[in-house]
Amino acid sequence: MAEKLLEIRHLSVRFGRRRKPFTAVDDVSFDIYRGETFGLVGESGSGKTTIGRAIIRVCQASEGEILYRGERISGKIPKSLDRALTRKIQMIFQDPMASLNERAKVSYIVSEGIYRSDGKRERAEKVSQALRDVGLLPEFAGRFPHEFSGGQRQRIGIARALVMQPEFIIADEPISALDVSIRAQVLNLLSDLQKEHALTYLFISHDLSVMRFICDRIAVIHLGKIVELADTETLFEHPLHPYTRALLSAVPMPDPIGEKNKHLLVYDPSCHDYTTDKPAFVEIEPGHFVYANQKEQNEYREMLS
User: How far apart are CA 305 and CA 233, in angstroms?
Assistant: First the structure.
């Protein structure tokens, strides 16, 4: 068995107080193993980014806990652990146009996380190496973000994460703001960096076709709750939850005729009867989990038999 790097146990995140509380993440549990790419897919507002932000402690957990290498990192933790997590866990943000300081040179942007811990020469060497690793020239360190294309800016964002020598990277929609022509380049770069640096990824996206290319396992999230989790091929070949099937039906097809004639499924939450038969997140087959009541669980098992 691979080593569990990250464990999320019954995590809930709520915003607002008293009269108008809003639950963004509702009783979510999953594990991420060392060296894998774990995908979290769902529509806008489903809570997937909030989970990523809870891991890096930008959002506080309302209930449940997050463990990293078996040590709790949610809630109040020692300052020494907080500093260590800053190096071990990094995040690549969605919009490369908004996530970089326009007034700072690339050298400072990339080295900001190591500015106090490393000397000037060591910082310069690490910045040069990080830029090379992401396919940029070291000379770019003296330029400003506005001098780069969107794809290059995202590479700078990746270099900023990479210079910290992390173990775990949260990639939050890292290619959604990029031109289609360069998305594959960035995905290939992330894949190559994972092999070279022994990285583990949490890859957040709304695009299942991208997830199929890069992820080992995928969790589908809807309205703050994970409704299905399986390895990538199982999820695509044998989707169980109606919401998962609706998402997959919307994935574009490379065949124009097939795309024109395909049948889109619409997910209707009212099709579930959760009033008398309470649902649970259960393992229907080895490694394949789904959120369902007892009747639905029996139906799904029959589908797979």
Answer: 17
Q: How far apart are CA 284 and CA 190, in angstroms?
A: 32
Helix (H, G, I), strand (E, B) or coil at 77: coil
Residue 264 DSSP symbol = -
Quick: pLDDT tens for 178-190.
Answer: 888 889 999 999 9
CA 53 → CA 25, 48, 84, 286, distances in Å? 11, 9, 17, 29
Beta strand ranges found along the chain (DSSP E): 4-15, 22-33, 37-41, 63-68, 71-72, 89-92, 168-172, 200-205, 217-222, 225-231, 280-285, 288-292
Q: What is the 3-state secondary structure (H, E, C) of 90-156?
A: EEECCCCCCCCCCCCCHHHHHHHHHCCCCCHHHHHHHHHHHHHHCCCCHHHHHCCHHHCCHHHHHHH
Q: How far is CA 100 from CA 42, 48, 224, in A?
A: 26, 22, 29
Q: Which two tokens stand for residue 99?
A: 């996530």
Sheet with 63-68, side-by-side order of all strands: 22-33, 4-15, 63-68, 71-72
Q: Which residues contact 233 (CB under 8 A, 6 or more apart)?
A: none
DSSP letters along 182-203, please? HHHHHHHHHHHHHHHHT-EEEE
CB 96 within 8 A of CB 156: yes
Q: What is the pLDDT of residue 294?
A: 93
pLDDT digits (tens, 9 = 90+) for 81-97: 988 998 999 999 888 77
- Nearest-CA neighbor of 170 among 81, 244, 93? 93
Residue 222: Cβ-neighbour burial (10 angstroms; 0-12, 13-18, 19+): buried
- Distance from C-alpha of 163 to C-alpha of 107, rounded to nearest angstrom: 11
> Strands 280-285, 71-72: parallel, antiparallel or unpaired by DSSP?
unpaired
What lies within 8 Å, CB to CB, of 300 at 6+ separation is 240, 284, 290, 292
CB 283 within 8 A of CB 297: no
